[in-house]
Amino acid sequence: MKGIDISNLNGTVDISAVKNSGYGFVISKITEGSTFIDSYGSRNVSNTKANGLIAGAYHFARFRDKATAVREANFFKQNCPSNVDFVVLDFEQQCSGDMTEACIAFLNIISSIASALIYCNPNYINLHLNSNITKYPLWIAHYGVSSPSTPKWGTYAIWQYSESGRVSGVNGNVDLNVSGPSFNFKNNTGTTVKNSSIIRLQQELNSMINAGLVVDGIIGPATIAAIRRFQSIMGLNVDGIAGIMTWAAINEIRSYPTDGVKYPHYEYATRWIQWRVGAAIDGIFGSGTENKVKVFQRNINSAHGEKLAVDGIVGKETWRCMFKY
Questions:
Q1: What is the per-residue pLDDT across 293-309, written as a single tens digit (0 to 9) for each?
Q2: Segments of the chain scoring below 50 in pLDDT
Q3: What is the CATH number of the domain that holds 212?
Q4: Where does the Peptidoglycan binding-like domain start and stop, copy by copy (predicted)?
């Protein structure tokens, strides 16, 4: 699942446009230090929830010891909307020595709002945190790499992979994120955070490639593996992220276009058809695919009493049988 994080620096953000661009969560800044309240924060959270997206809220830390960490945690708690799905300590301030105790003190307090995460980069983890901090999930900031470094944790809930993204609905650059294997937590009502787009994704993967996923709205290792398998079949970048192109492939298949040698080119639909009938998968509906479709039609008629035209054309009834049997 893709997400962005925003603050007053982004000004007014059109969350509905963000949603329409394929993003599933938005993390909004609420406070900084012990005095600053982000004037856009509560509104951003409200708009995120209104658009059916997962809403996170974060505090930019300024503390340098446990006492000031507790003070900042209470300040954040007083100003954070109660309906957020998760809360975050943004730990990147100038400090020295091991800050684990102070960070845990902060996280212990804000975890009464919703599940709490810590945001950090690999360098700060190595300099200032010990393994005790891993009781809380990690939002890792690591740019310019194919996969993030996660010292001490070995996994991550969220990966911030760019600070210079461009997303419809946001003026200028915005931080880009993607959910990770441990993106699995409970909001303030004790409900496991889910997303309707992930539920639909899991249902589609089960239907299209027999993924056998539990439809729970949570991105876990099995779902990521299924996304990667589907992307491979579609000839897409195999990154395990259900982005715009992955959804474009799903939606093209679900449009059930009439597909055949003499019909318009539908690469993703053709790739799925080729996978389904055991043809070579290249996205081009040629004579080899046509012959495999004829074999499929003939076999379905024989085994299930259907009356498909054995013509090598995937029309309405052949599409129906491809999903039915």
A1: 999 999 999 999 999 99
A2: none
A3: 1.10.101.10
A4: 196-250, 280-322
